[in-house]
Design brief:
By secondary structure, the chain is α/β, with parallel strands linked by helices. The protein has two domains: 5-235, Phosphoenolpyruvate-binding domains (TIM Barrel, Alpha-Beta Barrel); 241-272, no CATH class. It contains twelve helices and eight strands. Strand 6 (178-182), helix 9 (186-195) and strand 7 (200-203) form a beta-alpha-beta unit. The protein is elongated and about 80 Å long. Bound molecules: 3-methyl-2-oxobutanoic acid. Residues 22, 41, 43-45, 83, 137, 180, 182, 203, 213, 215 line the site of 3-methyl-2-oxobutanoic acid. The site of 3-methyl-2-oxobutanoic acid (KIV) has 12 residues, from strand 6.
Length: 275
C-alpha cells in the first residue's frame, strides 16, 4: 500500500513506528522500497554523499529534481519526500511555493522537506495551501552549518531546548505533517514527540521519536568522510564494494575476465569469410 502524509499521521495515532531512509537513484530506491521502508527521503545530503561537497549548501534545485525523478521511478509504495535545497525557500514565500511545486511536478515527489521553525512557518503554510505536504526539520539543520559553527548537537541548554520545542509546536500549527529531529538530546526529542500530534522522525535523537531516518551510505558504511555517533552500520557494503573492485581489477589484468560464459558466439565460417 502506498504510504502518504495521511498514513504518517495515522501511524502516530496507532503508535506504529515509521521508517525512512535516504536514496538518490533508481536502483537504490527500488531496493529501499522493496524492503518495505515507509518513506524515501531524497535528502540534500546528496551534496555530500553523492557529489562530494563538504556540506549541503551548494546543492541546487536542478540537482534535487534530477535525483528525485530517478527515485520516484523506483519507489512504488514508499512516500517520496524531496528536500528543498539551501536558498530555494528562505528567500521568499513565493520562491518556496514555486520550488516546492517543481519538486512535485518535475521530480514526482509526494512531499517536500525544509529546514527551520518559526522563521519558515509562512513558507510552510503557503506550500500546504497548495496541497503539498511539508515535512519540517529541526535541531541540527545542516543548511545552518555556518551559523552553528559546525555540525553540532543542538538544544542542550534550557533556552535552546525551549526554542526547538516552541518551533515544533509552531511548525505543527503551520500545517507540517511530520518533522525530522536531528542531533538533539534523547529527552528533548521525547518531550517534543509527546507534545505534538504529528510524527517526529529522529536522526541522532534517540529511540522515543515516532520514526527513524538514516542516510543509506552511513548505515551501509559506504561514506567514509565522517561517521556520526548516531549511525549504526548495518552492513560493511563499502568494504565489500572495494573487495569486489579489487577482484575485478586483478582478473582483468590477469586475463581471467571475461571468461567463456561472458562471451557472445559467432559461427567460425562467418569469421573465416572476413577479409
Ligand atoms: O539531507 C538529508 O539526508 C537529511 C537527513 C539527514 C534527515 O536531511
Amino acid at each position: 500500500m502506498k504510504n502518504t502524509a495521511v498514513t504518517f499521521k495515522q501511524a502516530k495515532e496507532k503508535g506504529e513506528k515509521l521508517t525512512m531512509l535516504t536514496a538518490y537513484d533508481y536502483s537504490t530506491a527500488k531496493l529501499v522500497d522493496s524492503a518495505g521502508i515507509n518513506s524515501i527521503l531524497v535528502g540534500d545530503s546528496l551534496g555530500m554523499v553523492m557529489l562530494g561537497y563538504d556540506d549541503t549548501l551548494s546543492v541546487t534545485m536542478e540537482d534535487m529534481i534530477h535525483h528525485t525523478k530517478a527515485v520516484s521511478r523506483g519507489a512504488k509504495n514508499a512516500l517520496v519526500i524531496a528536500d528543498m535545497p539551501f536558498m530555494s525557500y528562505q528567500t521568499s514565500v513565493y520562491d518556496a511555493v514555486v520550488n516546492a511545486g517543481r519538486l512535485i511536478k518535475e521530480g514526482g515527489a509526494q512531499a517536500v522537506k525544509l529546514e527551520g521553525g518559526a522563521d519558515v512557518c509562512e513558507q510552510i503554510e503557503a506550500i500546504v495551501k497548495c496541497q503539498i505536504p511539508v515535512c519540517a526539520h529541526l535541531g541540527l539543520t545542516p543548511q545552518s552549518v555556518n551559523a552553528f559553527g559546525g555540525f553540532k548537537v543542538q538544544g542542550k541548554g534550557k533556552e535552546a531546548a525551549q526554542k526547538i520545542l516552541d518551533d515544533a509546536r509552531k511548525i505543527e500549527e503551520a500545517g507540517a505533517f511530520a518533522v525530522v529531529l536531528e542531533c538533539v538530546p534523547n529527552k528533548l526529542a521525547k518531550k517534543i514527540s509527546e507534545s505534538i500530534s504529528i510524527p517526529t522522525i529522529g536522526i541522532g535523537a534517540g529511540p522515543d521519536c515516532d520514526g527513524q531516518v538514516l542516510v543509506y551510505q552511513d548505515m551501509l558504511a559506504m561514506y567514509s568522510d565522517m561517521k556520526p555517533k548516531f549511525v549504526k552500520q548495518y552492513a560493511q557494503i563499502g568494504q565489500q564494494m572495494k573487495t569486489a573492485f579489487e577482484a575485478y581489477a586483478k582478473e582483468v589484468s590477469e586475463g581471467l575476465f571475461p571468461s567463456e560464459e561472458h562471451c557472445f558466439k559467432i559461427d567460425d565460417e562467418v569469421i573465416e569469410k572476413l577479409y
